[in-house]
């Protein structure tokens, strides 16, 4: 059988026949396995950021447990006619050669507009990750609702739905549609539409204000930052007001 992958997504894999003791010739499939998009979405948690391990010019790579093995699943983000041809070429090239220093192509998916590759997972990551470290991530929605406490009261940050990656050398990202929680967002960031790690620092500062004062983020129509700035201004004028939460002052741990 011809060793090729059809443009319509049909799986044309190499088939050989081995004679068994009874003389019959069962088919044996050689080469990468075809998966449906639904299968790969399920094992990656619907391509959750929690499973994201890399990104490139054409897509993202996710870690997943598939068919009893840990795999790396590469998804093309913007498939088109050109990238479809590129994917087929990549499949044909990788499946036609074998070398100890080449990543093995385990499987693929051509399902509607979805294009994915399934590769062996390498726990030590890429050489680039060792040379230049991990990419910077900004959360963009730091607030008490997104910080959970374990049995030892160790804080755990969750909800990365608005999170963004920095590209190499970038100092900020420009976005006009980030919908975080208003009271925790830096007003200057919103005005300039430029987000960076400083955006998370501001949000964390508001969270600390809540922790220290015991005050709600908005109380009697006044947000906690405006309230704190007023007290700080008074303190600089010599009129100090203790705004530390009484429960925190008496806390002994």
Strand content: 25-35%
Q: Give the CATH superfamily of the largest domain.
A: Transferase(Phosphotransferase) domain 1
Output the number of helix runs: 7
What about the largest sheet? 6 strands, mixed
Short description:
The protein is of the alpha+beta class and 253 residues long.
Itemize the secondary structure elements and their pairings.
Elements: E1 4-5, E2 11-12, E3 14-17, E4 27-30, E5 33-34, H1 37-43, E6 52-55, E7 59-66, E8 69-76, H2 81-96, E9 105-111, E10 114-120, H3 127-132, E11 137-138, E12 147-149, E13 155-157, E14 164-165, E15 173-174, H4 187-192, E16 194-195, H5 197-213, E17 218-219, E18 222-223, H6 224-236, H7 246-249
Parallel strand pairs: 5-9
Antiparallel strand pairs: 1-2, 3-4, 6-7, 7-8, 8-10, 9-10, 11-14, 12-13, 15-16, 17-18
Keywords: ATP-binding, Cell membrane, Kinase, Membrane, Nucleotide-binding, Serine/threonine-protein kinase, Transferase, Transmembrane, Transmembrane helix
Catalytic activity: L-seryl-[protein] + ATP = O-phospho-L-seryl-[protein] + ADP + H(+); L-threonyl-[protein] + ATP = O-phospho-L-threonyl-[protein] + ADP + H(+)
Main location: membrane
Mind explaining what this structure looks like?
Its EC number is 2.7.11.1. GO terms for molecular function: ATP binding; protein serine/threonine kinase activity. It is an enzyme of class 2 (transferase). It is a single-pass membrane protein. This protein starts with a strand and ends with a helix. The chain has 7 helices and 18 strands. Strands 5-9-10-8-7-6 form a 6-stranded mixed beta sheet, with helices on both faces. The longest helix is centred in the last third of the chain and has 17 residues, at 197-213. With 253 residues, it is an alpha+beta fold.
